[in-house]
Structure formats: structure tokens, C-alpha cells
Amino acid sequence: MNKIGGYFGKILAVDLTSGQAKPVEFEPGFALQYIGGRGFGAKLLFDQLKKHDFQIDPLSPENVLTISPGPLAGTYMPASGKTSFVSLSPATGIYGDSSMGGSFGVELRQAGYDALALYGKAAELSYLWIDNDKVRIVPAPELKGKTVLETEGMLRQKTQDQGLKIITIGPAGENQVVFACITGDWGRNAGRCGIGAVMGSKNLKAIAVRGTRDLPVADLPRLVKASNEGFALLAQHPMFEFWQNQGLMSVIDYINNVGVMPSYNFKDAYFDRAEKINGYTMEDHYKIGNTACFACPMCCGNICLVKQGEYSGTVVEGPEYETACIFGSNLGVDNFAFILKANQLCDELGIDTISTGNLIGAVIEGYQEGILDLDDTDGEVLGWGDEKAIISLMEKISKKQGLGEILAGGSKKLIAEFPKLSNLISQVKGLEQSAYDGRVAMTMALSYATSDIGAHHTRAWPIAFELEAGKNWTMEKKVDLVVYHQTIRPLFDMLGVCRLAWIELGFPEQFYETAYQAVTGVNYSLKDLLERSHRVYDLTRLIISRRGIGRKDDYPPERCFIQPVLSGPHAGKKLDRAAYEQMLDLYYQKRGWTQDGMVSAEREKEFLSEPGII
Amino acid sequence: MKLTVIPERCSGCRLCELACSIKKFGVVNPKKAGVHVMVVYPAPVIRMPIFCHQCKDPKCAENCPVDAIACEDGVVKINEKECIGCEQCIISCPFGSIFTHEDMEAPFKCDLCGGEPECAKVCPTKALIYVPKHLLGQAHRMENVLKYAHMKQVEYFEKGEKKIIHYTETEKKDNNSRKE
């Protein structure tokens, strides 16, 4: 396939069971319809599920893990370093995806592949080594139990190539903790949905890539012109420098001041000691450097070092907002050095900070409320801000010991073991909630509830819009905003670019149309692209409904309805159930789904009749 | 003018590599560039673009067996027609700033884009800068001076905003020495 630019026309399909790797060519129609990234991943997952009548255990060899960057990844345009990881999630049992920045995806593309699809299971712990056309599955029992950093170091030494781009799982991924992540470039994570556990279930410890090919771009002068304008636009933004200095940590103060910052396991939405864990604290005492994903001028990554005290010597790429909040205010912690330690530990063990912090928060609250006793907590007293207990729980999770074994199964297992915790753990569809309160803005509650992976903010983040301007919005306007977010934000994941330039520094949407056209030579308008993203949302909905999801699962965490916010500007607020039901009705209507949350019969037929790609 | 780097500022985004590949070779391929960002993590944490320093006494030229490398107007250039592809220059360079790629006949390196280096233009953190030679080392000189002066500070308010002014005092002789 070489009729359109932007693609190599090849997916590298690896069967770890047989040890065979072969590049599979695809038709231009596939690229035109699914664009790349999450789109490719969703289609490949759907194909695999269809083959197995939608009955696949996420941690079995039948599951597929796809890694796909997207046609704009690695091209000369701002923030084009994103790669989507798609698989059936062991945390939720449904469609799962997570995206990673850094430069792994770009390197994969330079090796000549638009995507990588991993099937089967290796006989023993191995790593995959892709050197352009040369693909090898190398047994590596010596990597067993190694942390993320150790693994990267050992692989560089073994291959004698410092420039390799490597993604790896930590001990938690090997042990199939259902919120294990995949880490690249030492600290960039595809954190959510337990993608790392899927990799672990395949006995695959790491993937190392070296690629040297030119990236295909149809109209380079047009891309360069547009991108140079884009770079200039970003650099002129009044917040640009501030963003470079603090990255996502800059939002702590904002989120707390508007009263949506989770604290004490989402019981409250305001933290009275936020200044101790905010971006300025980081800048003044801990930050030692900036780091950026590929081709990104915004360099939102912070590198921090603890210079004194108990956690002295802790170096970590991070934290970003979610981690600082989930391990800070949400666990009643106001010690920034501890947040860095927790972040580093999560990165080394290979567990998702959001899920980990949520689950630990729930058991602390459970213990405090008397739902859990010392027998349940391995004799450990669990209190808010108890740093030692938190670290001990993290280690137990990664090794699946004691209470850690239950937590390693995620919210679903936690609720199964301790049903009384079901109202304390903030989750949707089994995925723990990101660090924005769900009670204050209806749009955010709907976003969490209808996100195809569970309670994550990546699909839609309308909270700031509603808080700033949405006081008198009609319900229709709110629903429209959620649907629009759920369409444009996944589009970024399909194109292989980061949404932050758009959401944080007001990068114009029209730019992505120009960049897509320049790279591919295909004259799709933004509207055409959004339609395709919309359709992929239908596809993921079909996948999750075939896995048992329906209207019953499209609700925000129960706490949102039953317990009002305790303090801050929104004290006393909770969600109105009747209003939410009404909103959900309207949402389904807008999406063209049935009132049970199913895609239309025509759409279903359309997807089922489409031929498979691999 | 001199192309130089302040590694502490580098974020490792590799836009310099991309811009170079586009300008020099007309392709999007960070592997075909006269600049390459090296990363070391976590001990120490460092990101640093490697590129040709246009040495006055270039080791690459010295070790080229066919004299294919020469300095013209302050820019060290490889004559591709003369080059026999022995790649001695790559290992001779003390900075490792000559590169090779399987698509290329000859090794390649930074040529300062004819006096307007694209990498410095695009660098979003101003880690790569193209400055007049006499300014080299200025930042260190300044830093040294500021460290030497044992700075004291006074806080004051201007239009309600807290500000800090740094100052240093001239040496005061104590009473005994004044008597002398």
C-alpha cells in the first residue's frame, strides 16, 4: 500500500507462541477509516474478539496487545510523540487503552511499521528486539523480577546500543497486577487499564526498537510551514513559559481553588494544604530538569530530586498532576518528598499511580470507617497520611502479598472481597477514577461514566469549561460538550499527537486538519476526521457491550450521588440522580445509541461484516 | 558565531534532530541529522545534543586518509566525492559528532546551515544557541561573580507585590584595623 502518505502500510504481527513475526500489509481503506493509534488498536482488538466469539480472558494468550503510534507521530509538528496501547483490559474485562508519550512510537515507525500487534504467549520470559526488518524474540530469564530502570539498563548493556528505545514492564506486570503499566524512556507510562499485565501474561518483559527509516510525509513543505507557525503560536502563548516550568503540576492550584481536587479518598474536593504539594513547591525545592516527549516544545515533564531527609536521593520523572493529587491530598499527604518517593516506586514496580492511589485510599478509609480490621490489613494500622503504610502496601501489591493480593486485582476484586467498600472506591466499570471530583460538574460525571475504558479523564475533560462558563448551560449543551470531547480527544490518540497543546495552550483544532492533509495527502476535513473518531467510539462501545456492559454500568461512582462535598467552594454539592438519568437519556440519543446504551443494529452489522485486517 | 549548548536547559525533545534532517536532507528522519541528543538517566540526569564544534584543528580532518575533510570559512566540511567511506572521521571526533546512516554514501555532520542553524532556531528551551564567540563563557563568568559576592537580600514591596533585591557589601574594616 503506497497510495496515501503518512503510512508504511505495514503492521508487524508477532505470535509469541510460535515465535513468528511477520509484517502484514494493509489496504489504504483501513488507514482512511481508522487513521491510526487508538483507531488501529480498536479494530485489531475487535477482529481478534470476533474470531473468539467475544469470549477472551484478558490475561490469556488469545488476547492481543496492539501498539500503534498514528500517522502524525514523529513528524515535524508540535507534540507528536504519542502512541496508543490497546488491549482487552484485565482490570475491567472490556476494551482498554492507554497512551504513552516519549519517543518509542516514533522509533517503531522509523523501523517501518505503523503498528505492532502481539499475540500468543512466549514459552519463557523474553524481550522483543526490533532492528528495522530484523525481529527477534530473545529469551531473557535474567530479567525476571527486575525493575523498570534495571531492565532498561540491562538491555542497553546487552545490546550495546545506548540509543535503543525501550518499553518495559516492572515486577508488577510480570505478576499480572491488573493495573500494571508499561514504561518507556525510563518514566513515560502507558499507565491505565492494566496494559502491563497483558504484556506480563504474554511473558514479554520488554520491547527494544531501533528504526532508521524516513517517515513518509506527502507534502513536507506544507507540513513545515504549518508546524513552524504552530511552534511560534505556542511560544507566544502567555502561559507557555509557566507551562514549561511546571507542566501539569501547574493545575494543582487551579483545581483546588475551583474545588474539584479529590482529598481523603474522594470524600472531599478541596485540600487545605495544597500549597505544600503544588507546582511552586516542586519548582522551588525539588525540580532539577525538564523533559519532553518527541518534538514537543511544551516539555511538561518534570524531573525531580529529593535533596534531603528520609527520601533523599529519590529521582523521578514526575510527578504530574494526577500522581501528586492521588498520592497527596487523596491520601491526606502533604509531604512532597513522599509523593516523589511514591511516584518513583510506582514507576520502578510498574504500577499505575492513579489506580494504586485510589485503591490504597479506599482501604485506608475502609479501615478508618471500621469496615476493615487488623486481620484484613495484615495487622497494619492504616491512617491518612501514613507514609510507611502506603509504601508497604505498594510493595505488597507488586508482589501480591497479603492485602496486596486483593488490591492487585483492582476495584472489582476489592469489592468482591469487601462488598462494603463498594461505595468507598471511586470507579466506573472497574477502572479507578482520575483526580477530578465527579460531583461538582455534571459533564465530568457523565464523562467518567460513559468513557469506554472506565473512570478516566482522557476521553473527556469538560470540567474546567463547565465550571468557568457552564452555570446556565442547558442540559443539551452539556451533553454536546461531552460528546464533542469524546470525539476530538480520541482523535488526537488516533493521529498520534498529544492533546495538551490543544487543551492547555489553546492550539487551534484546524491545525490538525492541515497537518493530517500535509502528512497523508488525503483531503479530509476536520469534520471527516471527527466522524471517524466518532465511529471508533461506536466500535469500542460495541466491544464493551459484547463484554456485558450496558446502561447499568454508565454511572459515576456511587459516592457522587450519596455524599456531598465536605469543604471548599462546592461544599454541600452532590449529584442529582434524576437529573443524571435524564442526561444519560439525552447522551444516548445524541450518540444514536438505544436507551440501554447499545449501538444501533445497523452500526453493529456494519462492524461485524467488515473484513479483518490480520 | 558559535553554535553552543546549555545542557541544563535541554528537554530531550529532539526537535533539533528533526529540523536538521528536514533542512539538510529534505526528509523527516531524526537519524539523518548533524545533531544527536544523548540522554543519561537517572544518575546523573542529563540530556545533551551532540554536534560539531567546528574545531580549528579538526581531528576528523587530520585522520582522513584522503584529505576529504577541510575547514572552509570556519566550517568543517566533508567532501562526499573524495570520501572513501572508511569512517575514520567518526571515531576520530572527540565529541562523537560525525554520524552515519545506511542510506548515505558518506558520513555527515553539522555545517551550521550556512550561518543560520535550524536547530538553534527551533529549540524550544533555548538550550541550543548560536552566539557571537566573545559571549562564550559569559554565563559562567557571571555565575562565578555572583557566587563570589556573598549576596545578601532585602525584601520589599512594590505596588503590593513582594520583591527581592540582592546586594553585596563592600568590606568593612573593624575598629582595630581602623586605628592602625
How would you explain this protein's 3D organization?
Chain A has 25 helices and 17 strands. Chain A is an alpha+beta fold and 614 residues long. The mean pLDDT of chain A is 97. The N and C termini of chain B lie far apart (53 Å). Chain B folds into two domains: 134 residues, Alpha-Beta Plaits, CATH 3.30.70; 40 residues, no CATH class. Chain B is of the alpha+beta class. The model of chain B has no long low-confidence stretch (mean pLDDT 91). Chains A and B meet through helix 7, strand 13, strand 14 and strand 15 of A and helix 1 of B.
Keyword list:
heterodimer; A: 614 residues; alpha+beta; Aldehyde Ferredoxin Oxidoreductase,  A, domain 1; Aldehyde Ferredoxin Oxidoreductase Protein, subunit A, domain 2; Aldehyde Ferredoxin Oxidoreductase Protein, subunit A, domain 3; six-stranded mixed beta sheet; 42% helix; B: 180 residues; Alpha-Beta Plaits; 2 domains; two-stranded antiparallel ribbon; 6 helices; 8 strands; 23% helix
Within the largest sheet of chain B, what's the order of strands?
A: 1-6
CATH architecture label of the largest domain in chain B: 2-Layer Sandwich
First-last Cα distance of chain B: 53 Å
Portion in beta strands of chain A? 5-15%
Oligomerization category of the chains in this entry? heterodimer
Classified by CATH, the class of the largest domain in chain B is Alpha Beta
Most extensive contact = A-B, 41 and 30 residues
Overall tally of domains of chain B: 2
The rough form of chain B would be described as elongated
Low-pLDDT parts of chain A are: none
- Strand-and-helix sequence of chain B, N→C? EHEEHEEHHEHEEH
List the strand order in the largest sheet of chain A: 2-1-6-3-4-5
Rounded mean pLDDT of chain A is 97
CATH class of the largest domain in chain A: Alpha Beta
State which percent range the strand residues of chain B make up.
15-25%
